[in-house]
User: Which sequence fits this backbone?
């Protein structure tokens, strides 16, 4: 079946440092979404990438979708304590219709 | 807030019992997806309902079943509960089956 892997599993950074999480799928994806989940909360949609090689920015967050549509990354510039949480990627396989497969997430901890 | 509500917020059951979880979708959304999130893991797709019909199913046994009502609210039923069913159960609503999903706060189920 489809697998979506994320690395690293955990990341501790000092406030102000950059952070990147990587997402890799075993199959080609039709699109990929990114979510943020705060401790004790629920996933909150951040963005969706659809096109090969697509890059989107939201303030300090930069999202990329690989040329082969099998990998993606989220980069946060100059982390803040409000960035704390777990970041999940979730992909839709091209012939799997509506099923969204989540990665295991990267838990970001920011030291002030 | 997404406008997606779930009830109850917490639930404790014993092995072998049955449970029903409820979800009210965001106004205007006709699709509800259900996910199981075990502690420290990403959400796993259980199934999706679109206009009252099941519209995709993940790798979950038949004792996980669901319903969607004419007002697009939904229920998740789990029979013969097992210890491993302890998890956060999330529903997510969307305008269409492949559009952006908005998650509710979840129901935390503990099976003893």
Assistant:
């Amino acid at each position: 079946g489809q697998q979506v892997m994320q690395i690293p599993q955990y990341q501790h950074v000092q406030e102000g440092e950059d952070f990147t999480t990587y997402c890799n799928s075993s199959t080609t994806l039709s699109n990929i979404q990114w979510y943020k989940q705060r401790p004790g909360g629920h996933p909150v949609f951040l963005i969706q990438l659809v096109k090969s090689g697509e890059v989107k920015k939201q303030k300090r967050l930069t999202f990329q979708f690989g040329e082969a549509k099998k990998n993606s990354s989220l980069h946060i510039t100059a982390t803040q304590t409000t960035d704390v949480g777990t970041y999940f990627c979730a992909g839709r396989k091209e012939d799997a219709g509506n099923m969204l497969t989540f990665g295991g997430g990267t838990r970001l901890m920011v030291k002030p | 807030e997404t406008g997606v509500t779930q009830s109850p917020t917490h639930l404790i059951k014993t092995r072998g019992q049955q449970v029903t979880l409820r979800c009210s979708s965001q106004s205007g959304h006709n699709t509800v997806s259900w996910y199981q999130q075990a502690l420290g893991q990403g959400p796993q797709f259980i199934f999706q309902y679109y206009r009252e019909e099941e519209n995709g199913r993940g790798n979950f046994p038949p004792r996980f079943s669901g319903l969607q009502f004419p007002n697009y609210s939904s229920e998740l039923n789990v029979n013969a509960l097992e210890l491993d069913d302890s998890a956060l159960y999330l529903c997510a609503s969307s305008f269409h089956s492949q559009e952006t999903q908005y998650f509710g706060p979840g129901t935390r189920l503990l099976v003893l």
About this structure: The interface with chain A takes residues 33, 35, 41-45, 48, 50, 55-56, 58-59, 90, 92, 97-98, 100-106 of chain B (CB under 8 Å). The CA atoms of residues 22 and 67 of chain B lie 10 Å apart. The mean pLDDT of chain B is 93.
